[in-house]
Structures are given as C-alpha cells and as structure tokens.
C-alpha cells in the first residue's frame, strides 16, 4: 500500500452499527446528509483509474475534458474473426509496474486492473499504512459483471488440449467475480467488511452505495469500485447474444446514444476504484475531501424491458434524491446511462422528465463513456470518478460522437461546458434489468434541502 506515513486517527470502534438504518435501496430516510449515528458521512478522498483513455486520473481527465474518443478496432489476440469490431481497449497497460508477480500469476486481467486502480486510489488519497489503526477498520467492495474470462479460457484450453496436469491451481479462484475484492483485501491486509456485487451494469453504483453504508455503520474506510476485462474471445462470444451490442465497424458510429443513429453500445475494459471514508476520520488525518456520497437507490424492471425501465429508473432517481435531501432543481449535471438503444434512450429521457420535472429540460446531461466504450459494471464508476473531477474543475465534459440529439435533453456535445457543479446525479442501468442512481455533493458537509 502506497502513500506517506501520517499520524494515526483516534481510536474508534470500527465494527459498531448505526442507531438508525440507512438503506442502500433508497427506502430509508430523506436526510442522507444527516444520520442518526451522530453524523457519520461517507466522502470520497481518492480516485484510481485504468481506462482506454490511459492509466491514472490525469491522463483520464485530460481525454475526457477534451472530448477525446479512445474507441477503436478490437485488436486482442484471437478476436479478429468475431463480429464485434469496435471497443474500448486499455492499451499500454503493464500490471507489473504496480503489482507483484506473485499476485499477477494468480489473477485475471480484470483483477490486474483492480489492483492497479487500488494502488492509484490509495496514493491519490495519501492513505498509507500509518493511517490504518486496525486492519478491521478498512473494507473492500467491488462489482463485477464478467469475471476473469481470459484466465478461465486459457486454463480450459489447457485442460482440453493438454490434460488436467496443465491446469493451474488458481483456475478455481481467478475467474470468480469476487477475485478482485479478495486480492485487494489480501494484498493490502484490509480485513474490514468485504463483499462483491455480482450484478448487472448498474452494480458499480450499488458497490459505492454498499461502501457508503458500511462507513455510516462504523467502518472508517472502504476501498470500492469496479473493473472489467470482457475483451477476450470467450467473453466476447458470450456478449454476442446481447441485441444491444453494437456491430458497427467504424469507431465514430459505434456508440451514439440519444441520436437517430443510435445502434447499440461499444463495450470496453478498465474501470475505477475510489477510497471512501468517514468524513471526520478523513479530515483528522489531513485528507482532501473530494465529494460526498449523498444518496442512492436501486430498482429492477427485467431484462431488456427498456420501456418499463422508464418507471424503474425514475423511481431510483427519486429515491436517491430523497436520501440525499436534494430537490430536483439542485441537480447541476446528469451523467446518463446512455445505452445507445433507441427505446432505452427514450425511456431514460422520459425517466428524467418524470423524476426531475421541468428541470429535466434545463439540466446539462452528459455521457463521456461514448468516448471509452461501456465497461459494464465499471462504466458508472468511471462516471462517478468523472463527476468528482468535473466538480473540482468546474467543467462538464462533452459526449463524444453525439451531435444530433433527438430527445428533449440538454446533452453536452462538441466541447466541454464551464459550470459550477455542486450536485451531480449519476445513472446506471443493466441489460438484465437493474436501475441505479447515485447523488454526489461537492466536497464535504453539504447542506441538505431540508435545512
């Protein structure tokens, strides 16, 4: 674990529970900024990004703010004969630069991304070993949609091509959805509440909500996020069954949500990890409070039922705003799910109108993921990282490849838009029917709409 040594935080019971229940599904109180346990607030103090735009926050933000597109031809070995032609690949990634060999041989590429992003996030948060008063005060929560497909494919090919003696012992764990949570926990000796959201694409937001809930219930720090590596041959073949997957052959036409030319989404690999802490503990160790995780809610409306997702997504938005104590008109920017399927895009636009009322026509809407591709569970986590950076820089990034919007939305296109951003709404939906919404507030100790 990286970062300078700091004075340890005061002793506190990392395992105690809050007197009041805080619901990750948005069914609880509408005072998300004030909690019955005396005010434990979940804040973001560190960001780590591995994406098609590059490794690290600086490279990522520069590309996002410039409206750069990193979509391109699929070049991964063994994929040239498959009908998927355009995706967001993480190029020039060398996990050995940040991760020890003994961990690399045990794990798949999606976990390599997670270990590297965790290293970057802890460094960004200036969170070192001296900040860990007890290994039980730090937890880990990740989300995963595809698991370790590349590792699993290689070992199964060894099994059927050469025999069982050629299958490594790590096959039993490397493919598993929980592998990244386990390896991050082991490598950093984090023994607090750990879990994995093995879920739909919206699971990345749900993982952050679980982290925030753990903090509110007494855990000092949670490392959370999602990374995916779905661009191996076996993984791509599995995705070809999705009618929403774009088969376009040109990168600038493959992923164009909210337009008349929408033809599905381009997949991507990579992801982001965030350090989420109790605000008081973070301030005590001298950390910078980047944003507050103010509210979250999730619903389910069924696989590919995009018309029905209108009501489910609207309900999630309403629940997240209620938990955050946020009025619709306080939302300064929406990071859209932006699936790129006409029926789904229409449902999202209508859900925003249902939940935000007249403000839905005025609030800026953006989908920077059209420049990287849709990294499944990691896509909304990358959006959360982007939202934090957008609030810090006072700049709403544009939506690459989108120019002719055919919905009643103020989609930020062409170039970034300067704005004072105090509240961001991040949305996520999954192909299997999950809907999730997360509200972020700028900095810490944000006032609630309830006074």
Question: How is this structure best described in words?
Answer:
- The chain is of the alpha/beta class and 451 residues long.
- It is built from twelve helices and 16 strands.
- Strands 1, 2, 5, 6, 7, 8, 9, 10, 11, 13, 15 and 16 form a twelve-stranded mixed β-sheet that branches. A two-stranded antiparallel ribbon has the order 3-4. A two-stranded antiparallel ribbon has the order 12-14.
- Strand 10, helix 11 and strand 11 form a beta-alpha-beta unit.
- It is globular and about 65 Å long.
Topology:
Blueprint: E1 42-51, E2 54-55, H1 57-66, E3 72-73, E4 86-87, H2 101-104, H3 109-124, E5 138-144, H4 149-162, H5 171-174, H6 179-188, E6 194-198, H7 203-216, E7 221-228, H8 233-239, E8 270-278, H9 279-284, E9 291-300, H10 309-324, E10 333-335, H11 342-356, E11 364-366, H12 378-393, E12 395-396, E13 410-411, E14 417-418, E15 423-429, E16 434-442
Helix pairs in contact: 3-6, 7-12, 10-11
């Amino acid at each position: 674990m990286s970062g300078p040594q700091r004075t340890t935080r005061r002793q506190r019971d990392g395992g105690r529970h809050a007197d009041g229940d805080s619901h990750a599904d948005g069914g609880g109180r509408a005072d998300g900024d004030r909690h019955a346990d005396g005010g434990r607030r979940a804040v973001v103090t560190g960001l780590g990004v591995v994406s098609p735009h590059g490794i690290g926050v600086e490279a990522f933000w520069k590309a996002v703010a410039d409206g750069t597109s990193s979509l391109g031809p699929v070049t991964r070995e063994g994929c040239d004969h498959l009908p998927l032609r355009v995706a967001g690949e993480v190029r020039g990634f060398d996990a050995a630069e940040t991760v020890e060999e003994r961990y690399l041989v045990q794990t798949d590429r999606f976990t390599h991304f997670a270990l590297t992003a965790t290293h970057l996030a802890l460094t960004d948060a200036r969170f070192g070993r001296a900040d860990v008063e007890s290994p039980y005060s730090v937890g880990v929560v990740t989300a995963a949609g595809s698991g370790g497909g590349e590792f699993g494919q290689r070992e199964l090919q060894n099994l059927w091509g050469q025999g069982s003696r050629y299958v490594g012992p790590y096959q039993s764990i490397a493919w598993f959805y929980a592998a990244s949570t386990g390896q991050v926990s082991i490598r950093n000796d984090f023994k607090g509440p750990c879990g994995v959201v093995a879920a739909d694409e919206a699971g990345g937001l749900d993982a952050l909500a679980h982290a925030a809930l753990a903090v509110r219930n007494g855990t000092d720090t949670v490392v959370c996020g999602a990374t995916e590596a779905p661009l191996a041959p076996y993984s791509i073949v599995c995705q070809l069954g999705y009618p929403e997957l774009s088969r376009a052959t040109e990168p600038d036409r493959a992923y164009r949500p909210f337009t008349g030319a929408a033809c599905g989404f381009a997949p991507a690999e990579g992801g982001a990890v965030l350090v989420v802490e109790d605000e008081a503990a973070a301030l005590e160790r001298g950390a910078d409070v980047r944003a507050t995780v103010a509210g979250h809610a999730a619903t389910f409306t069924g696989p590919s039922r995009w018309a029905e997702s209108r009501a489910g997504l609207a309900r999630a938005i309403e629940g997240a705003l209620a938990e955050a104590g946020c009025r619709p008109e306080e939302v300064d920017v929406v990071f859209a799910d932006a699936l790129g399927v006409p029926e789904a895009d229409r449902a999202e636009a209508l859900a925003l109108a249902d939940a935000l009322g007249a403000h839905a026509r005025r609030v800026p809407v953006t989908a920077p993921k059209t420049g990287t591709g849709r990294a499944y569970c990691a896509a909304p986590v990358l959006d959360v990282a982007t939202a934090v950076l957008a609030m810090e820089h006072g700049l709403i990034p544009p939506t690459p490849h989108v120019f002719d919007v055919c919905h009643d939305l103020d989609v930020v296109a062409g170039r970034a838009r300067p704005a004072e951003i105090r509240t961001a709404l991040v949305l996520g939906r999954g192909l299997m029917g999950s809907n999730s919404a997360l509200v972020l507030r700028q900095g810490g100790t944000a006032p609630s709409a309830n006074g």
